[in-house]
């Protein structure tokens, strides 16, 4: 059901400044103009190198999205649960104490623009 | 010999025979720290007062004839990406410059229960991203063997601590080699356990499916003792495995007769320094002389390890680091008129260049249109690498290789070329991708800088690793050499 | 009608577990801000999620009740986006491999049966709450405050196929689904409090057209009525646009209950890139046959089956069956009573009428009262026998509900038994006849109403205990004298 990821053609290795700006926005990372240029070049190089994995035939290979394995290395883990029980937290005050800005026991953030 | 020069098992014997006290041990280590720390810069935080108070408590405990564990009274350094309640934990990043965790990592709880004494938090590459500890936002740690060289990374502070005798045992974490490579550069023992062997709860996450906590120690015996104490199932970590922990000391047998040891061909080829190669082949010869069946083995997919790793690890990291946003803890930018500005500026100010680079890379890899080509493909190549190891382990009991392509490089030598830095992890990375255990032990010197031998085993075969490593150690003298500080 | 509406719903239900989905904090509503938190649900560095087994059980139970397929293997995934109510800035949800796939819920609208398909059911964690400062809502606020009590509360998301064709169908669907979830005991179904939330995807197309039109997403519908109103408004808006040649923009719109209209939420924002990938901190969920069978055994009769049974087997009219099945506890009590009593309609009348009125007045549920089915039937039996009159029974019932005493005890105490015996009634009757000469004259003159008046007077004097039939017979006899 890879609807979102329908692109199976490998995009060109050229990472553009527009790509870098878009990605920085997704990651909420403020970059200077110099950083944008540097990253454009470095990302292109690193991804260009990473492209070497395309040489491998993985048509019939399933992805390893989860480790660990069981004792014999072959049985993947599954069904790890906890019991539905209330466990009180001892560190409540310490958690709120770490707030960069606190107001009435809540975490205060600057205005959210639409 | 000074107390700070001894191993944990030697100190335990002394404590047991009442020849020394926890307070004496702690003071000896603290004294050593005050002498050499200015040169080495291994620590972010040193808990002088708390350590002495704890030592006194432990001494009272021992005096009341209560049973002591192998870790009782032993000073331990903790890598600063592991949460310690009430003690500053920064991951060597500006974005956590004031973060006081409200809880202890599970392994920290375990060693506290065992009566160990945390001495301080050690320096690392920011968020464990790096191979030299030069990416720390605070300080450069120096290799005790040659202060102009790096201690390796990302657990450089912990490895340097052990080499310089600034701690008896040290915690490290390993995502692509971050315990083993600094162990190799600093001439100490470093083990990355099987994924799931040790709880990750409380380890500030870098790449969730690759991270593991492990020991950095002066010898193989200490590594076995330390692993005993930290390993085990944790209900707070869904990826920790519910398998009993054997007593790893029982594996410390000086005997490798008839064990089948594979020497990885591709890791003795291009890209590996010739002197390093020589050390590894000499180590292989010694094992052969001691009765092991040593043969070359080819693992053709290993060369894709670095590329695969830098797609997967950065993708997971980019997501794990999203929580650092100035809302709940840590640094918040003062340039924060509105929420978006707060996010952008906090993260801009708080993260160093390597971290930013990896966040960018990882976000790109996961973004719409690239998932199949990069992330999914890398997960499949990961399966191929795992399969390669499975095939090798059907023939061999363990595999050996150099830990790193070279000994410690000069401070500043690789900072401008990230790709070259990444490629230096070529021998350690595949091990994390496969989730299997590996240990690095000293096996020689090049230009007076240590070289490490990596021994790799299949999942949950730490006992095999200890056996082979112990045998090698008992038949060589490398581990007895210490840096002149 | 030129156009037909195509509607799909996304329902989020908060699950009734003791603890949150990934940590041991309480899942209950209403604590003071940031008092129901821990390192895990506040996204501290280094924490890890651990899945609550009951959450999975509830979702499987729901999936089975909806006749869906329990996936052999399902995987949690990270949905990445930045917002202050999301501590990790990603939500742990499910994406490519949800827990339940397929299923359906049959509803009845205007007497017609309709089969609404379910696409999937999956699990995810809820976010926190934001309080905005300096303004009523987000717009124009000067800052916001975050309360993480709600982060990590387990949510079950149910997505329907776009099978719904009218606002009324949508409303009925939400009501029926809500009843089902309450019946299963997995959710308390309170839309006003937010434990049940509904979003709608709406598009219109020319009747007969196969392709779907551009859809919009409508959010902020906080009651069953709002669901209907909002969808009505949106269909109207889209119809007007298409008829005047405009194109529908794919966007998210918020419903405003006071104006009855929808307004765009983010007009120029690009579609979110959530960068979904499998959650590495959790392992796959692979329910085995045995567990699924155990869960399916805990599913008792569902509302639709119950309704059918009440109508078919016990001959109750649809109206009664509806009222009884809407409240599971009442329906359970009804079934228990039926074990001891044959007259279903009479029982239903009492329960839907006086008993429900009492419960409503006291603002309690049937679970809160002190009465057993045996006691309730005891009372009905006494009425049937005539030992107490219908009128006095109402008062006796209240006493019984409040005090928990048996009906026999109450009757004995208050002397409330009906008076059948003529000899008991004659003195009172004679007194009333003496004191109401005009009514007597009226009756003798042919006015039947006068008799009722005289009966009323005797009833008053006997505090309702006179048996109506016996009294009537006696009065008529006496008045003939």
Give me some keywords for this one:
heterotrimer; B: 485 residues; alpha/beta; Amidase signature (AS) enzymes; 11-stranded mixed beta sheet; 15 helices; 11 strands; globular; C: 481 residues; alpha+beta; Arc Repressor Mutant, subunit A; 3-stranded antiparallel beta sheet; elongated
Protein topology:
The complex is a heterotrimer of chains A (114), B (485) and C (481).
Chain A: H1 17-26, H2 33-50, E1 81-82, H3 92-97, E2 102-103, E3 106-110
Antiparallel strand pairs in A: 2-3
Chain B: H1 8-16, H2 22-40, E1 43-46, H3 48-63, E2 75-79, H4 106-113, E3 117-122, H5 156-163, E4 169-174, H6 180-186, E5 189-192, E6 212-217, H7 220-230, E7 260-264, H8 274-289, E8 293-297, H9 305-320, H10 339-350, H11 353-366, H12 371-395, E9 398-402, H13 418-423, H14 429-434, E10 438-446, E11 449-456, H15 462-474
Parallel strand pairs in B: 2-3, 2-4, 7-8, 7-9
Antiparallel strand pairs in B: 1-3, 4-6, 5-6, 5-10, 9-11, 10-11
Helix pairs in contact in B: 2-3, 5-6, 7-15, 9-11, 9-12
Chain C: E1 3-14, E2 51-52, H1 53-65, E3 69-70, E4 76-80, E5 90-94, E6 100-101, E7 104-109, E8 112-125, E9 129-133, E10 143-147, E11 154-160, H2 167-184, E12 196-206, E13 216-221, H3 224-243, E14 252-256, E15 261-264, E16 277-278, H4 289-297, H5 303-312, H6 318-326, H7 328-338, H8 344-362, H9 373-385, H10 390-403, H11 407-414, H12 422-435, H13 437-444, H14 448-461, H15 468-480
Parallel strand pairs in C: 13-14
Antiparallel strand pairs in C: 1-11, 1-12, 3-6, 4-5, 4-16, 6-8, 7-8, 8-11, 9-10, 12-13, 14-15
